[in-house]
Amino acid sequence: MEKKDHINHVDAWTSLRSFTNARIALGRTGVSVPIEEALQFKMAHANARDAVFSHFEKEQIFTALQLFQQPVFFLRSSATDRHVYLQRPDLGRRLNEKSINKLNNFKSKGYDICICIADGLSSTAVNMHAVNLLLLLVPMLREQKISIAPFCIVEQGRVAVSDETGNLLKVKLSVILIGERPGLTAADSMSAYLTYNPSVGLTDESRNCISNIRPEGMSYATAADKIFYMITESIRLKISGVHLKDNIKAIS
């Protein structure tokens, strides 16, 4: 006679796990989480911590950007290292003096947009996804004759660092691709933030965000279409943030 297992309980939602990476239907062993799920949780937590401190592969990104045959600037925020970056978010929003001088010496005559690539809270995300997205987005922009300032690779950067960068480059719209805060189901989520008429001191209501750009989230193709739509609409209407709506589905 087969002995019934009264200890291990399988959750009724187990079949739904194939549709999501969310931590659902974990089951239980007695009153505890099964050991396999407990270990997976620890692994996810370790991956998230690693993503925050992962190496920003800026040289490889620089090399890949040469395909577009336009200048690339290496910039840094005022945060001197990773620990300062985490403890002083305000310093990550401003360029350091050397970077400011570099952009001033460039003497920009004005562009439609600038594209920044910053490590943010997950270098892993931009290392994996930034160039793949730009391979789709940049040709779309060039086809519409949207002028692009030199690419800016920003180390220890927060979202708002693109405001100062865009202002110094005299652009109509700043775009920043940045690694988002890692979660327990995604350590490689990248977002794109768009700000019209960028200047120091703007806050989040002035921006639009396209988030969770990665193969398991929003695909590169979908993200490129959305970003392109938001860029063209922002420039046409001369607005961004809460005043600019994503109506791409309504016109598709």
UniProtKB/TrEMBL annotation:
EC number: 4.3.1.7
Reactions catalysed according to its record: ethanolamine = acetaldehyde + NH4(+)
Pathway entry: Amine and polyamine degradation; ethanolamine degradation
Keyword Metal-binding found: no
Entry's Gene Ontology cellular component terms: ethanolamine ammonia-lyase complex; ethanolamine degradation polyhedral organelle
InterPro entries: EutC (IPR009246), EutC_C (IPR042251), EutC_N (IPR042255)
One Gene Ontology term from the biological process aspect of the record: ethanolamine catabolic process
Cell cycle is among the record's keywords: no
Key words, A-Z: Bacterial microcompartment, Cobalamin, Cobalt, Lyase
Record localization: Bacterial microcompartment
Family from the record: Belongs to the EutC family.
Known role: Catalyzes the deamination of various vicinal amino-alcohols to oxo compounds. Allows this organism to utilize ethanolamine as the sole source of nitrogen and carbon in the presence of external vitamin B12.
Name of the molecule in the record: Ethanolamine ammonia-lyase small subunit
Organism annotation: Panacibacter ginsenosidivorans
